[in-house]
Amino acid sequence: MAYLTLKNVNKIYPNGFHAVHDFNFEAEKGEFIVFVGPSGCGKSTTLRMIAGLEDISKGEFLINGQLANQWGPREREIAMVFQSYALYPNMTVYDNLAFGLSLQGIDEDVIDERVQKTAKILGLTDYLDRMPRALSGGQRQRVAVGRSIIRKVGIFLMDEPLSNLDAKQRVTMRSEITQIHRETGATTIYVTHDQTEAMTMADRIVVMKDGYVQQVGTPREVYFNPSNVFVAGFIGEPPMNFVRRTVSNGCIELGGHMLDLKKRLPKKIADYEGKEIIFGFRPEAGQLGENENAYPVTATVELTEMLGDNANVYVDIAGEKVIIKVSPHEIPQMDSEITFSIPVENVYLFDAQTENVI
Predict the structure, then answer these.
(1) DSSP symbol at 284
(2) CA gap 54, 330 in Å, rounded
(3) 238 upstream amide cis, omega within 30 of 0
(4) I need a labelling partner for 182 at 20 to 30 A (CA). Which of 204, 216, 273, 327 fits?
């Protein structure tokens, strides 16, 4: 039996806005789940329904097999970390960490032991006497996380907790939150619009768009086996390249070459004869030169970006703009004509009407 279950969960506001549509999902105890998607896709609304901060309009939410729709946040044994730190400004770090335990009437010696242990895990031992205003953004976020984990609840909910941090702090906090999750063993639901956070932290990812779940899977599954154009384009940086073409004799024309799609989908491509498809490939799939068992494409170089360990090359294919990743030692000249290859197995084909993978 799954620890957390959402069955056909919907959120419809009084003004008629349908924020979440038929959300179905199960999380096992101890999993780290990331809800990812663009702003306004319904991920934070879903998190708030799990927390009990928003009513569920339709559907069922179960915790450990028990219907929890009407339970309050305290009954759900949930701790939540928000985008804002929400620290008490007139309390020290120690008192911020201890406050929730004090309300529960826990003995002071036990509180002190748990505060000291939590502070050690989060690297806050030297800051326990400081006020929040004397801390950096990363330190305040650690206090906010610490205030949640100190309660030893079964479910952690995190709503974009790293969005207020700079790039270096986000990298550090990602690893710290992942390590805390391993140590506590709590079921964690983490909301973000940053697909890098999703890919690096999650056991499984829930990709959302316009209130609908697009795909659920491990980071590897959603990256290498996207269910549709949206998931393929949202997960990955730079995003997947897409080109629309009409199938003729099982082939499409791209960059002065006829690409035989029967090599990629020998049984299915006949169903698309005379129809438009979406041809997709990830930037890192492009390889300079022509290679065996790969589709050749000729293009003109428009822009290059040197990134250190690799380089992005922006090319034009008869008006189509795509990006390929190359070695920093193989950056082609601006405005030059190049031929690159896409291994057949690295090509993705999507139905142009439904945008689902073929």
Answers:
(1) G
(2) 53
(3) yes
(4) 216
The beta strands (E) that lie in the chain are given as 4-12, 18-27, 32-36, 58-63, 66-67, 78-81, 155-159, 187-192, 204-209, 212-217, 241-246, 251-254, 257-260, 276-281, 287-288, 294-306, 311-317, 320-326, 337-343, 347-351
Residue with tokens 């890919």: 199
Terminal Cα distance for the chain, rounded: 33
* 71 touches 52 (CB < 8 A): yes
Q: Radius of gyration (Cα) for the chain, nearest Å?
A: 25
DSSP structural state of residue 184: H
Predicted TM-score (pTM) of the model is 0.90
Q: What are phi and psi of 339, to 5 degrees?
A: -120, 125
- Output the pLDDT for position 15: 96
Give the Cα separation of 167 and 338 in Å (integer).
35
Please count the other Cβ atoms lying within 10 Å of the Cβ belonging to residue 279. Answer: 23
Contacts of residue 303, Cβ cutoff 8 Å, sequence gap at least 6: 313, 314, 334
pLDDT in tens, 95-107: 999 998 888 889 9
Sites in the chain below the pLDDT cut of 50: none
Task: Note the pLDDT tens digit of each residue in 232-241.
Answer: 999 999 999 9
Cα–Cα separations (whole angstroms), residue 170 to 197, 287, 350? 9, 32, 34
3-class state of residue 36 by DSSP: strand
Task: Dihedral sign for Cα 99, 101, 106, 111, please.
Answer: negative
Q: What is the DSSP string of 215-266?
A: EEE-HHHHHHS-SBHHHHHHSSSSPPEEEEEE-BTTEEEETTEEEEGGGT-T
d(CA 331, CA 316): 16
**Residues 13, 336: Cα–Cα separation, whole Å:** 55
